Amino acid sequence: MRLGIVGTGKMGSLLKQTLEKQNNESIAAVHRGYELQTLSEPPELIFDFSHPDNLQALLEYALNHHVKLVLGTTNYTQKQQLSIHAAAMQIPIIQEANFSLGIAVLKQALKQITPILNEDFDIEIIEKHHNQKVDAPSGTAKQLAQIMNHMHQYNELYGRRGECGQRGKEIGIHAIRGGNLAGEHTILYLGEDESLEITHKAVTKQIFIHGAIKAAAFLSDKEKGYYTMEDVLSMWEEVNGTSGNHRYD
Ligand SMILES: NC(=O)C1=CN([C@@H]2O[C@H](COP(=O)(O)OP(=O)(O)OC[C@H]3O[C@@H](n4cnc5c(N)ncnc54)[C@H](OP(=O)(O)O)[C@@H]3O)[C@@H](O)[C@H]2O)C=CC1
Ligand SMILES: O=C(O)C1=N[C@H](C(=O)O)C[C@H](O)C1
């Protein structure tokens, strides 16, 4: 399959290296979305791990050439999100702020746990990432908050400072930056005399790459539509059953 990558940073480079090791024949990596126009032949699928500023050129190119998209970039605006959903009416797009299996499973767990605890427990999220990450909080933390807040009953509060008053009906979201941490997300349910903490730790960036490649395989027979890793996970469960002998790669 002819593959393209937008973004030549940490994720883009690691993805290219991994795809090359897997003997993918044609991989065109570009630095900016508008450089896609210079390719002699359109890729069948493009991965994007770059910056929201590349989105418009990427969507225009993908729509013109009917290219499948795997979008891993975080921190899109609401307007950009709408343009992604509009494009997915014509081409297949899988978008995920975090391609790891652990986070896909965590999202399912939060959907079960939160309605049971939300009356009596306060909810906080702490995310930790490397010192070169440009956006905060992480796309994953925002998605996890959205999942727990799907009824819009909480105020999403980014950090606290000064005289902020007693805690209200809110989800506090806190970003730590330092070193070369690949990415950690902790959900804290804090109640009277008990608390529950769930942490996902990405040990290396390679897990995101494996997940993105799985996501690309998932798109192979799709003509159009908007998908996430939850769709990939559901497919996995259908293929392997839920017996526990799950193999992700
Ligand atoms: N979905 C997932 O599982 C994961 C998602 N990510 C996300 O992927 C994205 C890239 O991460 P990472 O590779 O670590 O980041 P890097 O900073 O290493 O790379 C970013 C890339 O985007 C380009 N870029 C930066 N600013 C702009 C701009 N204003 N306009 C156009 N292009 C720009 C950079 O070009 P230049 O070299 O010129 O700066 C570089 O090619 C981030 O949004 C991150 O959150 C990361 C890991 C996992
Ligand atoms: O920039 C990163 O590194 C990561 N970004 C994603 C995010 O913002 O959630 C996913 C992962 O945690 C690593």
UniProtKB/TrEMBL annotation:
Compartment(s): Cytoplasm
Give a GO molecular function annotation for the protein.
oxidoreductase activity, acting on CH or CH2 groups, NAD or NADP as acceptor
Q: Where does the Dihydrodipicolinate reductase C-terminal domain lie?
A: 102-233
Annotated function? Catalyzes the conversion of 4-hydroxy-tetrahydrodipicolinate (HTPA) to tetrahydrodipicolinate.
Chief subcellular location equals cytoplasm
Task: Kindly state a single biological-process term from the GO annotations of this entry.
Answer: lysine biosynthetic process via diaminopimelate
What keywords does the record list, in alphabetical order? Answer: Amino-acid biosynthesis, Cytoplasm, Diaminopimelate biosynthesis, Lysine biosynthesis, NAD, NADP, Oxidoreductase
What is stated as this protein's family in its record?
Belongs to the DapB family.
Q: Tell me the ranges covered by the Dihydrodipicolinate reductase N-terminal domain, including all copies.
A: 1-99
Q: What is this protein called?
A: 4-hydroxy-tetrahydrodipicolinate reductase
An example GO CC term for this entry is:
cytosol
Q: Which residues does the Swiss-Prot or TrEMBL record annotate as the active site? A: 129 (proton donor/acceptor), 133 (proton donor)
UniProt-annotated binding residues for NAD(+): 72-74
Catalytic activity field:
(S)-2,3,4,5-tetrahydrodipicolinate + NAD(+) + H2O = (2S,4S)-4-hydroxy-2,3,4,5-tetrahydrodipicolinate + NADH + H(+); (S)-2,3,4,5-tetrahydrodipicolinate + NADP(+) + H2O = (2S,4S)-4-hydroxy-2,3,4,5-tetrahydrodipicolinate + NADPH + H(+)
